[in-house]
Amino acid sequence: MCVATLIAMGVNAMLEVRLYLAQRASAAIMAPLVLIHLGVMIYAIQGGIDAAEILERTRGSLFWGVNYGLFVVAVSVHASIGLRNILREWLAVRGTSLSLISWIFFAGLLTAGLRAVAAVVIA
Known about the structure:
Elements: H1 3-8, H2 13-45, H3 51-58, H4 62-91, H5 95-121
């Protein structure tokens, strides 16, 4: 949607610009992290590595903790903004409800993701 349409709908145009930029920035962060993950997984499975061996390599690793932690934060931001846009454009959810649903979704993704990272990295 163009900015004029959003303003006519009573949407805070500056907020929408910030959310647009945040979603694009999160995508830019996710892209290289996904490539690193895929590259390492392709390399690792060629030797027939199993889950126990993966955990053996990731436990206590600051690199993997930061890598996957950053990925979880970026995905949480990216997905919650995307959900917000879908709710606004397709279901006409507006105002406080829209913000509340987006924040709850963000918090849920972030919590679940960081717990998963902790389970894989913390010894």
